[in-house]
Amino acid sequence: MSGHDTPIPMTARRSGPLSGVAEIPGDKSISHRALILGALTVGETRITGLLEGEDVLDTAKAMRAFGAEVERTGDGAWSVHGVGTGGFAEPADIIDCGNSGTGVRLIMGAMATSPITATFTGDASLRKRPMGRITDPLALFGARAYGRSGGRLPMTVVGAAAPVPVRYATPVPSAQVKSAVLLAGLNAPGQTVVIEREATRDHSERMLRGFGAELTVEDSPEGRVITLTGRPELTPQTVAVPRDPSSAAFPVCAALITEGSEITVPGVSQNPTRNGLYTTLVEMGADIGFENPREEGGEPVADLRVRFTGTLKGVEVPPERAASMIDEYPVLSVVAACAEGTTVMRGVKELRVKESDRIDAMARGLEACGVTVEETEDSMTVHGMGAGNVPGGATCASHLDHRIAMSFLVLGLAAQKPVSVDDGAPIATSFPVFEPLMAALGAPIARVNQ
Ligand code: S3P
């Protein structure tokens, strides 16, 4: 879907203690990958715990357009009858990836080494985002791309009829770029190599191996070297999607800044490529218990017991941690505003090319709520005001960005005056049950005029 016709203004007001158990839905990154790899595998892949958010539903629709049979068989349960590596059919119409950068970039990779042409578009947010970071490496396989100026959508990708394997060092730390190259490499003969200087989320590597691809990872002086042998015989899988640690961040941070709170969040990923926020919160002095460590859906997970203490301190978040918490900086900046002292986040310029320019969006909204923020191209500094001291009382722009909307609503729970967002509709892209889940914990978050 290309955008929302009707904005949904929402308000959060100062909350009493949050309590209860927050059952977080499936991981967005893993959900996209399960659908795409299922579609690239002959036979039936069954998925449970799929995130049924708009981003992932758009990817499901796209996989149908490329010829896979994709069916919802129950709550979060999906069946994909794939067409096999190199088996994608040419879509009859434009592929609309809605708000999803992950969806469009991974799908471009997956089709780029098949002799078909596809045109991609998305909502107003996605149409602003750079695609050159994907089409540059796809050109090395022999694919061609024709988009708007600056490499923006709508964009037509002409897949390579005779793809060659590629060795590519990613110029930006991006799991989407890495994954697009690996998915393209599936239908190239020989070995495709991706080198990343900093480790980014490794779900593609884990899942490609799980589907039977030959894939090795080595640490070298150049960085992480990932080698995929092309044209593997993939075997259909049963994929149990674990819960999304990026969604868990919202109730966790809400509990940490809302007086008297104590909540439990079961099954939160401890994958080191995803858990930078939790490391940072513990450094700030957060009271988080990591209980019952175990494996779920191929990911290390723990049950989080989160308690408000009112004694969080500002920290310096090192740049090398950025990739492991890239989606969590907006809500971290809210926690930082409610902590004592200054929090400095460095090495975060990738935040400027997300669903919105997240440094700008958070800085403007926090300032409107009475918080002092400094920014550079690559960093953000938040001057904490201490628990319960953020004035609030503003309406913040969400810029079609789910994480910006949810972050400001979390802030409203601990601010002195209500905090509103102009549009909460994008929350449905990644966390469709955010409102009932937060309400069940006791959070007064409501749609305006209802
Ligand atoms: C994602 C990678 C990250 C992240 C996005 C999901 C993925 O983007 O921000 O929400 O599933 O690969 P980048 O690869 O652009 O850092």
Automatic annotation (TrEMBL):
<comment type="function">
    <text>Catalyzes the transfer of the enolpyruvyl moiety of phosphoenolpyruvate (PEP) to the 5-hydroxyl of shikimate-3-phosphate (S3P) to produce enolpyruvyl shikimate-3-phosphate and inorganic phosphate.</text>
</comment>
<comment type="subunit">
    <text>Monomer.</text>
</comment>
<dbReference type="InterPro" id="IPR006264">
    <property type="entry name" value="EPSP_synthase"/>
</dbReference>
<feature type="binding site">
    <location>
        <position position="28"/>
    </location>
    <ligand>
        <name>3-phosphoshikimate</name>
    </ligand>
</feature>
<protein>
    <recommendedName>
        <fullName>3-phosphoshikimate 1-carboxyvinyltransferase</fullName>
        <ecNumber>2.5.1.19</ecNumber>
    </recommendedName>
</protein>
<feature type="binding site">
    <location>
        <position position="28"/>
    </location>
    <ligand>
        <name>phosphoenolpyruvate</name>
    </ligand>
</feature>
<feature type="binding site">
    <location>
        <position position="129"/>
    </location>
    <ligand>
        <name>phosphoenolpyruvate</name>
    </ligand>
</feature>
<feature type="binding site">
    <location>
        <position position="29"/>
    </location>
    <ligand>
        <name>3-phosphoshikimate</name>
    </ligand>
</feature>
<feature type="binding site">
    <location>
        <position position="33"/>
    </location>
    <ligand>
        <name>3-phosphoshikimate</name>
    </ligand>
</feature>
<feature type="domain" description="Enolpyruvate transferase">
    <location>
        <begin position="15"/>
        <end position="436"/>
    </location>
</feature>
<feature type="region of interest" description="Disordered">
    <location>
        <begin position="1"/>
        <end position="24"/>
    </location>
</feature>
<feature type="active site" description="Proton acceptor">
    <location>
        <position position="327"/>
    </location>
</feature>
<dbReference type="GO" id="GO:0003866">
    <property type="term" value="F:3-phosphoshikimate 1-carboxyvinyltransferase activity"/>
</dbReference>
<feature type="binding site">
    <location>
        <position position="354"/>
    </location>
    <ligand>
        <name>3-phosphoshikimate</name>
    </ligand>
</feature>
<keyword id="KW-0057">Aromatic amino acid biosynthesis</keyword>
<feature type="binding site">
    <location>
        <position position="174"/>
    </location>
    <ligand>
        <name>3-phosphoshikimate</name>
    </ligand>
</feature>
<feature type="binding site">
    <location>
        <position position="101"/>
    </location>
    <ligand>
        <name>phosphoenolpyruvate</name>
    </ligand>
</feature>
<dbReference type="InterPro" id="IPR023193">
    <property type="entry name" value="EPSP_synthase_CS"/>
</dbReference>
<dbReference type="Pfam" id="PF00275">
    <property type="entry name" value="EPSP_synthase"/>
</dbReference>
<keyword id="KW-0963">Cytoplasm</keyword>
<dbReference type="InterPro" id="IPR013792">
    <property type="entry name" value="RNA3'P_cycl/enolpyr_Trfase_a/b"/>
</dbReference>
<feature type="binding site">
    <location>
        <position position="358"/>
    </location>
    <ligand>
        <name>phosphoenolpyruvate</name>
    </ligand>
</feature>
<feature type="binding site">
    <location>
        <position position="176"/>
    </location>
    <ligand>
        <name>phosphoenolpyruvate</name>
    </ligand>
</feature>
<keyword id="KW-0808">Transferase</keyword>
<feature type="binding site">
    <location>
        <position position="327"/>
    </location>
    <ligand>
        <name>3-phosphoshikimate</name>
    </ligand>
</feature>
<comment type="pathway">
    <text>Metabolic intermediate biosynthesis; chorismate biosynthesis; chorismate from D-erythrose 4-phosphate and phosphoenolpyruvate: step 6/7.</text>
</comment>
<dbReference type="InterPro" id="IPR001986">
    <property type="entry name" value="Enolpyruvate_Tfrase_dom"/>
</dbReference>
<feature type="binding site">
    <location>
        <position position="403"/>
    </location>
    <ligand>
        <name>phosphoenolpyruvate</name>
    </ligand>
</feature>
<dbReference type="InterPro" id="IPR036968">
    <property type="entry name" value="Enolpyruvate_Tfrase_sf"/>
</dbReference>
<comment type="similarity">
    <text>Belongs to the EPSP synthase family.</text>
</comment>
<feature type="binding site">
    <location>
        <position position="176"/>
    </location>
    <ligand>
        <name>3-phosphoshikimate</name>
    </ligand>
</feature>
<keyword id="KW-0028">Amino-acid biosynthesis</keyword>
